What does this fold into?
Amino acid sequence: MGLLRWDKPSGRLILLIPAGWSLWLQPAGPPPPPLVGWIVLGGLAVSGAGCVANDLWDRRIDPQVERTRQRPLASGRIGVTGALVLLALCLLAALAVVLWGLPPGSRSLCLGLAVAALPPVLLYPSAKRWLGYPQAVLALCWGFAVLIPWAAASGQLSGGTPLLALWLATLLWTFGFDTVYAMADRDDDRRVGVRSSALSLGNAAPLAVGLCYGATALLLAMAAALQGVGLAFWPLWLLASAGLLREAWLLRRPDPPRSAYGLHFQHQVQLGSLLLLALVIGRSGGPLP
It folds into this structure.
């Protein structure tokens, strides 16, 4: 369905990747498969809710932007009432995952985190109207993709430095890739009168993205080292880190085509997945002594 962006899996995967990082950085080791399944279902429901909320907020702006003018609400294929019903169904599905899918000992904490995540998830699309860096709000939303799985697996948020490093890595990675995503719409956003970090940073955007990606790689390395992730993690981490920095460097090219920014986003999904694979392999070999 177009409102849920199921035809664009990259946007769904990029939310699930930090959740995977969180699950495979648990002190107790790899998560049980049923928990992974419930986290995936919850992530898909929340991602769908975010897409619908975004299109509701932007239903009058999207027709003026080349990339978004064919979205269902913008083109009139779906009405506001239908979108609100779909939004409610997505939120109810996410609530069902928390109440019936997650371990009983962690449900209260996860429910509190889910309630706390709701305002930024629903209000993020409006941030471009009043904040010069709306991508920072999206980064906060993505941070809950780390906190909720961590709480679900351990029943607490006392993860110390590894959890803090992972949370910060997710925030910085999200700010970076969403800034690039916004770079494709700079001309349209400037004309319509909405804001983005791509506009606010101007020519400094590629440097800012590179710093975000570099910090992301270092913070993930710190979290992995502190959690005793096995040696198999490091070659893939090095490969993914080099890929992140290369992608940021390519943003310095003069006048890249609009399609380059979408390709960058897809590459972030691949590189984030490579980092997750590194954690999975590193954990499967057992912790370092």
